[in-house]
Design a protein that fits this description.
Blueprint: H1 2-6, H2 10-15, H3 18-34, H4 40-53, H5 57-72, E1 77-81, H6 90-96, E2 102-103, H7 106-118, H8 124-132, E3 137-142, E4 147-153, H9 164-210, E5 221-228, E6 236-242, E7 248-255, H10 259-277, H11 284-298, E8 305-313, E9 318-324, E10 330-333, E11 336-339, E12 343-344, E13 358-361, E14 367-371, H12 373-376, H13 387-396, H14 403-418, E15 427-434
Parallel strand pairs: 9-12
Antiparallel strand pairs: 1-4, 2-3, 3-4, 5-15, 6-7, 7-8, 8-9, 9-13, 10-11, 10-14, 14-15
Helix pairs in contact: 4-5, 4-9, 5-9, 7-8, 9-10, 10-11
Amino acid sequence: PAWRASALSPMVAIRNDMASMWHLPTLMVRRAVQRTVVPLGILISEFAGSIRRAESFPEAIQISLETLRERVGAQSIMLLDQGALPAQGILLKRLKHYPHPLTLAPSDFETWKRWASEFKPEHSAEIAFLESTGARIAVPLRTKNEIVGVLLLGAPNGGDSYTPAEKQVLSNSADVFALMIENARLTDRALEQEKLRRELALAAEVQRRLLPPEPPLTSDATLAAFTLPARTVGGDYYDFLDLPDGRIGIAIADISGKGIAAALLMSVVQASLRVISADGDVPLSKLAERMNGFLYRSSGSNKYATFFYAQLEDRGRTLRYVNAGHNPPYLMRKSEITGLSTGGTVLGLFPKVQYEEARLDLQPGDVFIAFTDGVTEALNIAGEEFGEERLKDLLRGCAGSSAEAISSKLSDRVHEWVGSAEQHDDLTVVVVAVTV
């Protein structure tokens, strides 16, 4: 009774008010129970229950925060993520070098404000914000490499400071919250990657639909092509066009860069070629000039495309072409191979460019092959390029074969050459074998 009376106010003790007399001991016992160190396994179990009840990650965090607030008897609690505090601010700098919960007393804020006003005014806003939260302790949420957040808790109920037992609870909880935040970040990253994967798959499908489903059939020649992008979407382009008077347009292009940006520029090449070639009998030199204007207006200053366009005419007896900076295609006649280079510079770099076109008379047995530099620059596991000489030797060995047979053999040979090595560039080939 004497101890109990000493803990009460004189008037309460004189009145012998039992309810009031037991109120303070009850609070003290409750605080003592709350201040018991909670095993990490129990904390994880409680937080896991919070997550199961939640319908979203933010809700799970809020439920878990309320669970922790009740566990340590804090008047308030808030979670600041990584971006809510200045990376070089006063709090994060202190927490980086102090691995435990950091006590924040009112006198600390007064000291910080005087220091900031005199020496570091850029920290004043952060200090004012921290003081406005009423925080009395800051708990860093650490992963292996960084602080991903900070817990700020107000004063404990019925006291001015947190006990060592409560600080231990906060340290244990910090590990759990850091893991939750890191898992959420990884989950968001995985979802973003899955979204990107689906978008790339859709872009690849759209790109495939831009390519001709099969080469045109003609009694004058056999035609074939294949393309193998280095990524999901590529920057190479080829096309066959059915033109009036039995003419066949043959195009191949190599877009600078990789990925979505190159695929978008490829669509510009395809669209401009289709529009311009449909506009009557346009000279090929003018066709290239107009396409250059399209690409210059549609692309950035460092984007361009190499481009080769030819027309098979007069029942396969004539080939007219223009080369806009593309590596020269080959015309093989018997065992002699000639490069087709007449034209001008690449498309898209300059507003106005003039081009030349050339005309060739074809003979039965001639083979025309256009390719992107990914073919000749294909690397094997030893880092050696496939090279132009191997391509020419393969062509000579295919004399008299159909375009499909040449294309298939070249595809197999390049695949065999690359083997398990990484493919660094898109591979595209167009073959025409004259039959009449």
